[in-house]
Write a structure and sequence with these properties.
With 527 residues, this protein is α+β, with helices and mostly antiparallel strands.
């Protein structure tokens, strides 16, 4: 596995795509057939609510949740697109090419209530899928990606991927696009277009323009909300976006999907047809390439470093915290050198984990404290270098005196952890439980508080067996004291399926027959 590989598992109810770089799992994409994503889909939507206070609106698109449309996505997206693909200097130069009405509206700061009204039909594209409790984010500035080009029908602009490094090639591509694009049409040249012949770019352009015209034709007769264009599924998106010249082979484990990929490749990128293979191994394809174990590692909270140190990754609602620790690494010379080496090693692993786990939003890195400014600078540079291979945009602050780095990473889909896991049904996602002793003492306080209010001459407590055992042994003295105080018998009963933190307290007469289900009447509250 020395070269880059695309390994695709699609012989079950989900499609999984693994990008392996230099023998290591770099990216993982998963699409379940009954939960197919909607990013890239184009809808004829209906504005259901305008929020002047948030300068945004909700647009009904026919999904479970309404999409969120910011005012910037109604009028300011051209600037956003250029920031994605162009260097800062180029962004300033190209700003003069924007349509004049866009420039005027951007300068005046048009408000959402002036642009949209409730009940209005609007054509939107999903730019970011639903994440957690949030609905999808939509934009009215459509972009249709092809193999070599991205077509932006609502923006009069030509951009070149900043990953195309040589100025000569950038000028060649810009010249080709300017000479053959229709008036008012916008295009961005993708990285894979480097060195591509003019005829291939022209074919890509014609295909995308026809695709857009078909969307517009559907829009004329469709009733909102309705789907106008369904983006490619994960399998073909993978071929379009990830099957680059750097990938030596694409291996897939389904003959039917192998034939579908081959047909797609022969139509749009025939030079790559010889790199597609059908997996014929006996064991599952992800097992054969050692990917399953890497997925488990990508879900772990603790990530080991080769030196003996480790990372601790905690993903919360508002931000992700990554803590760097020396662990077993003791170094050779002095403490400062040991700490610096651990921090530098951690930089690459942090970048790899962010990319593999698809962690976005606000991220705080807690490096081990370093005394020397030059060592902090060394770690900052190592982090910047490690993030260069990441396609997602990241903004990183300098490392502070406390060893903290604040950064943001563009988030377009759920993280791997949120895609593959769900909150623990037992602790309800808290990540902890109250101790048996804490629950025992809570119950004793509750009995003291409510005991005299319960009917009968006995108090029945139903709880988890481990708590019941504690009350019958270590805490028996406190139970005896309560019986004397209340002048009532306290009967402790265990229930196997009772949650550790739950218990029921009820009252009954000792002579009364026991309820076979719970050992007493439910006069008291359930905890």
């Amino acid at each position: 596995m020395g070269g880059n590989l695309l390994v695709i598992n699609c012989d079950g109810p989900e499609t999984r795509v693994a990008l392996i770089e230099r023998g290591q799992l770099a990216e993982l994409y998963i699409e379940r057939r009954r939960e197919r994503g909607i990013v890239g889909n184009i809808y004829k939507g209906k504005v259901v609510r305008v929020l002047p206070g948030m300068q945004a609106s909700f647009v009904e698109i026919g999904e479970d949740k309404a999409a969120f449309l910011y005012v910037a996505d109604v009028r300011g997206a051209p600037e956003d697109y250029k920031a994605l693909f162009l260097d800062d200097d180029e962004s300033r130069e190209e700003r003069d090419d924007l349509p004049k009405d866009e420039m005027i509206r951007a300068a005046r700061g048009a408000r959402i209530e002036d642009l949209l009204k409730e009940g209005q039909d609007v054509l939107v594209q999903v730019a970011k899928g639903p994440i957690g409790t949030k609905g999808a984010r939509a934009t009215s500035y459509v972009s249709l990606p092809g193999r070599h080009l991205v077509y932006m029908p609502t923006v009069n602009h030509v951009g070149i991927s900043r990953r195309i490094g040589t100025e000569k090639e950038r000028k060649r591509l810009r010249g080709i696009l300017e000479s053959m694009r229709p008036p008012g049409a916008g295009f961005i040249v993708r990285t894979v277009a480097e060195g591509v012949a003019e005829r291939e770019l022209h074919a890509d352009m014609e295909f995308l323009i026809k695709l857009w015209n078909s969307v517009l034709k559907r829009n004329e007769t469709a009733r909102a909300p309705s789907l106008l264009y369904n983006d490619l599924d994960l399998l073909l998106r993978t071929v379009r976006d990830l099957f680059t010249p750097e990938v030596e082979k694409l291996i897939v484990d389904s003959r039917g999907e192998h034939d579908r990929i081959l047909k797609f490749v022969q139509a749009f990128m025939p030079d790559f047809a010889g790199r597609i293979e059908l997996y014929d191994g006996r064991e599952p394809i992800f097992d054969g390439y050692g990917i399953e174990s890497e997925i488990d590692r990508a879900l772990a909270r603790k990530v080991p470093l080769k030196s003996g140190g480790y990372l601790v990754i905690d993903q919360g609602e508002a931000l992700t915290a990554i803590d760097v620790n020396t662990g077993k690494f003791v170094g050779k010379r002095n403490l400062e050198e040991t700490i610096t080496k651990t921090n530098v090693e951690a930089c690459k692993e942090i970048a790899d984990q962010l990319r593999l786990r698809s962690i976005g939003g606000i991220i705080v890195l807690d490096f081990i404290d370093m005394d020397r400014a030059q060592n902090r600078e060394k770690v900052s540079k190592a982090l910047d270098d490690a993030l260069k291979n990441d396609k997602a945009r990241a903004n990183v602050t300098k490392i502070s005196d406390l060893g903290l780095v604040e950064m943001t990473r563009k988030r377009t889909r759920d993280s791997l952890g949120r895609s593959l896991t769900e909150p623990c049904f037992y602790c309800e996602g808290k990540g902890y439980l109250k101790s048996k002793t804490t629950i025992s003492y809570e119950m004793l306080r509750e009995i003291r508080r409510e005991g005299n209010l319960l009917k009968g001459d006995a108090v029945v407590v139903i709880c988890n067996p481990e708590v019941a055992d504690l009350l019958a042994t270590s805490d028996q003295q406190y139970v005896d004291d309560l019986e004397k105080r209340l002048q009532k018998k306290i009967i402790i009963k265990s229930r196997e399926r009772c949650h550790l933190e739950q218990y029921e307290i009820s009252g009954r007469d000792r002579a009364e027959p026991e309820d076979k289900n719970n050992g007493g009447k439910k006069d008291g509250p359930a905890r």
